Amino acid sequence: MNDALSAVLGTDTAEATEAASETAGKVAQFLLDEPLKILIVLVVCFVARYLLLRLISRVATGIATGASRLGGRGTAKRHGLLESSPLLNERREQRAGTIASVLKSATTLVLGIAAVMSVLDIVGVSIAPFLASAGIAGVAIGFGAQALVKDFLSGFFMLAEDQYGVGDVVDLGDASGTVEAVGLRVTRLRDVQGTVWYVRNGEIIRVGNQSQGWARAVLDVSVAYGEDVANVQEVLQRVGDALAAEEDWKPLVLERPEVWGVEQMAADAIVLRLVVKTAPLQQWAVQRELRRRIKAVFDAEGIEFPFPQRTVWLRNEDARPQPPKQQRRPGSEVDAVSAAGSHPPPRSEADVSAETTADVDPESVRRGS
Within 10 A of 126 (CB to CB), how many other CB atoms are there? Predict the structure, then answer.
């Protein structure tokens, strides 16, 4: 009987030991398998997120501090005024901050979703329903928010490509004016009458930026047919050179003014073209000053501005009376500066743009408001 009892106890002990060993093996396998896999997934996601965020920060820093590509490196060296503009530096920082914020948020979201899905799959939870639901939700959102997605994508690429920024004077087709805020969804600008326009980025088909890199003042000057074209060209060149040589106007004029010659032969006048390469947003101030000086010099030199004329033919007359021609004042050439007078640059669109930019909260621009 003792032998039988010992056999039963031995069998129970062996079974218990085997069961305990099996349980311990499962526990050890669980502790060494699933948690280890989860830990590896989390570590990989954190490392990938750290590296990607660091890369994004470096790219954003390069955008914020890098030289503008407009006009090439040679232009940037010649015209340091364009590169040292506080408005341009602020624009770069806002653009870099917005792009970095969007990319960092997207990176964190994608890696977080990937980590959660991987952990659920490791612990044995089927992720097929989640993927199906996400696919259906994505399709529904895509159909219901096409315009919103289009606005955000267009805004992101506008910022990445630096098509325009705060303080630029732009023409967006339906509206034109000075940009006050650039967001991922909406661009806000104010026109010359003071009206504020809100333009959805997805609706912008073309952008005309009048303040990137440099600008050009173009003046078409009309004179009467009786004037000496060569003399008028020489007078226009003197007026332009005198403006470019003055200390007040020299920073605004980037290159020597050029008279391109006869632009048009209209019915009542000959049109000559004078062009001046200027700093951004200064072309209008230069045009106004040149018009004032040209009027003063033409009056001093006796150069006639055109007016509508009609020739009347009278029958039975051998000679037709000729209209009197304004005679040039006696004396040598009139100095362009003394005839027109010298005035410092007036308040221009660039000053208004700078004041408008100073009132804009950079943080609201970075947040895409």
Answer: 9
